[in-house]
Amino acid sequence: MKLHWLGRTALTAYFWVFVLFLFAPLAVLMTFAFNQSMSPTLPITGFTTHWFHQAFSDTVLTGAVGRSIEIAAATGLFATALGIMASIGLSARRLRLRALIIAILLLPLVVPYISLAVGLLVLLNQLGLHISLWAVFLGHVVIAMPFAVLVILPRLRSLDPSMMEAARDLGSNEVTAFSLVTLPLLMPSLVSSFLICFITSFDEFAIASFLAPPGQPTFPVFLYTGSRAPGLLPELIAVGSLIIVGSLVVIAIAEGGRRWAERRLQGVPAEAAAPVDSGVPVLQI
To answer: pTM of the prediction?
Structure first.
């Protein structure tokens, strides 16, 4: 009984230390966003919102944030679409070299981004192409797609194939059956996939630093270069605080949408949620 109490106390203490370690830097960052001093040091000299106004008036900074959001949104949509197609192929009952295909699809997870960035840059030079935001987008799709597969494939494998067969028996073709039956059941996973791919692209620095054209940096590249300029540091802290708040809002909306989707799916038969032994290896997340 005493060992049980000690173990529970240790786990509780570890949890709160982990939460403090994770969120304390964010709280400090948001605090300094309202500090009158240009230096992010204690004590706080006064309260101001000047840095937010100055950040929004900086067209270079807002342009970098806008580019990152556009590339991240496009990456999330495209990588999720590719993840759906790859997951459908990997869910086939008979697929040769399944393990090799999975390994190739997940290879970007273990390849250093800096190596991938250099390889893409060399490839563009060999093809006679110039660095561009399109190259950044394609590079982000490459590194984001494995996350989409890891999220979508387990959910797809958990669905009962008999639902698709029933839709086909009622006269639907494969596209209609997938759109009306499978896709709604995959929606929570698709939203999760989009958010993960979005964040992966928005935060990526190495590929963007090599492939983004001069004068068109993404936000991580601008953040890295601007952090060495003391005059830009308060603006970057202010924008970083807004991104943190926006991320929390998106997470809250996504969680609400997930619960709403689960309530809608409560009418699905229990056997539809049971894994089917189709011989496809389950990917653990």
So the answer is: 0.78
